């Protein structure tokens, strides 16, 4: 004998009740019951449509507590309709309609909600006839007949931990259609987010005190939940200026402009590492040709590395095996008016290094890169190969400290294994995902999205101090 479906116990609503909209991240909201209205209405502002034309979504923010504009809950939902609604004062407005779940007294059911600005209303929510199911009766002269909730829940850390994984609008700043860019788009969209690739050099900025904006192809860019910078070395200066503009408008950027700028300048980067007492190969820099001999001596003599400050992917990096060769290379670079570093050659590394991918202060993957036959450089772009690496505790700590020194939430930290411990070669603020995902078999882009989703959740509301 099968059990028959249970009938919801009858509920009686007064003219005002406490409700929850858990799918929107609203655990407590006071709603006015209006049997004269067909559809319910929720206070919403910054209403913006995003996503594909076949399944459009809407994102918006809610001030659930009247008079507390310092608490804003960001929400998103699929659009189910768009319809004209006439308010009690006779004004007609075209509103987006969404579906969500209403919870009251342990019972829940689906309802439709229209989105509109109710900032002038005492109640942030209006419950219409469609939300009042058959088992609900109305007592129009009473209020709060169902269990009373409290706005205190918004002070709790639980409001952050229990926030739903809403659909996000994310921009990837990239000029390349490569593996990393495609993975960021595919993985983000698989999670229900809208991910747009923006060519950094086609962005332009309106810089002013009251309404700073970023424009693209003749239009102001929308408000993004997060920006993932993939800034190429050739456009570092302009790219970091664009990121600073996003930072100015309050957008969460996975890596900030200051960290990208410092990590790209190899001289600056080594000075940052030295300031934080992070192990690295002995490094020297000078402007005058009279100091060539001293430069070579300070790194322990030949063999040594001569490295252009603007070099990437192993380009502009030369191994000088003798003092005479080192003097010739340094002279040639100076003749080209190029800025360069002279660095100790860690012979025991034997053409291998370790790339640690750090996300949110943790090493999430590591690979060992081995240079091509006869090449001291281990870069994959120079023909190197990659295998998964097991790293020691000192190596893990060095990688985490290096990423933290630059304030980078995501970084590729390259280490050499020397006789006296790990040496940080470079901190990459736009690490590629292809080599390390294939070497380790891990979904590392997914780990990045875990961090983005965590960062953009609402924070608990700070309590106001009571006077006296």
Topology:
Blueprint (H helix, E strand, L loop, with lengths): L10 E3 L2 E6 L4 E8 L6 E4 L1 E6 L6 E6 L10 E6 L2 E6 L5 E13 L2 E10 L8 E3 L8 E3 L19 H4 L7 E5 L5 H12 L3 E5 L4 E4 L6 E4 L2 E2 L5 E4 L6 H13 L3 E2 L3 H8 L1 H10 L7 E2 L7 H7 L5 E5 L8 E4 L2 H13 L4 E5 L7 E8 L2 E9 L14 E4 L4 H13 L4 E9 L2 E8 L5 H7 L3 H12 L13
Parallel strand pairs: 1-12, 3-11, 4-10, 13-14, 13-18, 18-19
Antiparallel strand pairs: 2-3, 4-11, 5-6, 6-7, 8-9, 9-10, 15-16, 16-17, 20-23, 21-22, 21-23, 24-25, 24-27, 25-26, 27-28
Helix pairs in contact: 3-4
Beta content: 25-35%
Separation of termini? 66 Å
What helical percentage do the residues reach? Answer: 10-25%
Q: Which ranges are low-confidence, i.e. pLDDT below 50, for 5 or more consecutive residues?
A: 1-5
- What would you call the structural class? alpha+beta
Give the second-level CATH assignment, the architecture of the domain at 11-161: Beta Barrel
What is the CATH class name of the domain at 11-161? Mainly Beta
CATH superfamily of the domain at 11-161: Acid Proteases
Mean pLDDT equals 87
Which quaternary structure do these chains form?
Answer: single chain
CATH topology of the domain at 11-161: Cathepsin D, subunit A, domain 1
Major sheet strand order: 2-3-11-4-10-9-8
What is the approximate shape? elongated
* Rg from alpha-carbon coordinates: 29 Å
Q: What composes the largest sheet?
A: 7 strands, mixed
The number of helices is 10
In total, the number of strands is: 28
Pfam families: RimK, Rimk_N, Zn_protease
Cofactor: Mg(2+); Mn(2+)
GO molecular function, one term: ribosomal S6-glutamic acid ligase activity
Keywords: ATP-binding, Ligase, Magnesium, Manganese, Metal-binding, Nucleotide-binding, Protein biosynthesis, Ribonucleoprotein, Ribosomal protein
């Amino acid at each position: 004998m099968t059990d028959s479906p249970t009938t919801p116990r009858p509920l009686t609503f007064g003219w005002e009740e406490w409700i929850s909209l858990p799918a929107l991240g609203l655990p407590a909201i006071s709603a006015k019951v209006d049997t004269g209205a067909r559809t319910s209405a929720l206070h919403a502002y910054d209403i913006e449509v995003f996503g594909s034309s076949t399944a459009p979504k809407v994102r918006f923010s809610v001030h659930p507590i009247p008079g507390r504009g310092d608490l804003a809950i960001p929400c998103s939902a699929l659009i189910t309709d768009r319809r004209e609604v006439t308010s009690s004062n006779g004004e007609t407005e075209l509103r987006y309609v969404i579906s969500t779940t209403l919870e009251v007294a342990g019972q829940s059911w689906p309802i439709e909600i229209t989105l509109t600005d109710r900032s002038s209303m005492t109640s942030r929510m209006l419950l219409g006839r469609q939300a009042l199911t058959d088992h609900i009766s109305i007592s129009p002269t009473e209020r709060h007949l169902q269990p009373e909730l409290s706005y205190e829940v918004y002070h709790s850390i639980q409001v952050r931990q229990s926030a739903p994984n809403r659909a996000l609008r994310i921009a990837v700043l990239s000029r390349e259609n490569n593996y990393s860019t495609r993975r960021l788009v595919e993985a983000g969209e698989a999670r229900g987010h809208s991910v747009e690739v923006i060519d950094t050099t086609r962005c332009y900025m309106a810089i002013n005190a009251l309404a700073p904006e970023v424009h693209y192809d003749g239009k102001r860019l929308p408000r993004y939940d997060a920006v993932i910078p993939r800034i190429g070395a050739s456009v570092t200066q302009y790219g970091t200026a664009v990121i600073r503009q996003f930072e100015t408008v309050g957008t969460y950027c996975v890596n900030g402009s200051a960290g990208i700028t410092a990590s790209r300048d190899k001289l600056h980067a080594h000075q940052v590492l030295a300031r934080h007492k992070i192990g690295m190969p002995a490094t020297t820099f000078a402007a005058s040709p009279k100091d060539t001999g001293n430069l070579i001596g300070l790194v322990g003599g030949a063999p040594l590395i001569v490295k252009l400050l603007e070099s990437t992917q192993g380009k502009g990096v030369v191994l000088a095996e003798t003092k005479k060769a080192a003097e010739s290379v340094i002279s040639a670079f100076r003749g080209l008016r190029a800025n360069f570093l002279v660095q100790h050659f860690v012979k025991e590394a034997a053409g291998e290094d370790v790339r640690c991918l750090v996300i949110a202060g943790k090493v999430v993957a590591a690979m060992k890169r081995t240079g091509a036959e006869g090449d001291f450089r281990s870069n994959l772009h120079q023909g190197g190969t990659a295998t998964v690496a097991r790293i020691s505790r000192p190596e893990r700590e060095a990688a985490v400290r290096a990423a933290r020194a630059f304030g980078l939430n995501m970084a590729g930290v390259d280490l050499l294994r020397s006789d006296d411990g790990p040496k940080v070669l470079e901190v990459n603020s736009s690490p590629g995902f292809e080599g390390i995902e294939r070497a380790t078999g891990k979904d590392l882009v997914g780990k990045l999205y875990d961090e983005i989703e965590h960062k953009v959740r609402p924070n608990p509301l700070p309590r106001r101090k009571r006077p006296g």
